[in-house]
Amino acid sequence: MWNYRICKRTDPKTQSIYYAIHEAFYNKDGSIFALSQDPIEPMGETVNELTSDLNYMMLALSKEVLDYDNMKYAKPDWEKDYSESNNPHRTKKKSRSEQNIKDNVR
Questions:
Q1: What does the alpha-carbon distance between residue 22 and residue 36 come to, in Å, rounded to a whole number?
Q2: Integer Cα distance of 49 and 74 in angstroms
Q3: For 53-66, what is each residue's pLDDT tens digit?
Q4: Domain count, the chain
Q5: By residue range, what is the domain housing residue 17?
């Protein structure tokens, strides 16, 4: 599961604080295991899709602001499943979406 969240960030060059929208990725228990590395821009292939994306981003305003620079991440479910296996030789093939998330998020 994922949604948009507002994150408080610090510019590394100027040390000024700013806020941006990021994608947050959740485990089944609701814990956050990743945030998108870069802020997200609204987009859509049509005006209606753009409007829908903006509406989802607006929902982030009703949630707690996350501190991007000091975020404590949960272990992703797929890593928990692997580490909790009784078979130490078991390999768990990652889905393409799991690998994309790992490759594209902080």
A1: 6
A2: 31
A3: 999 999 999 999 99
A4: 1
A5: 2-96+100-104
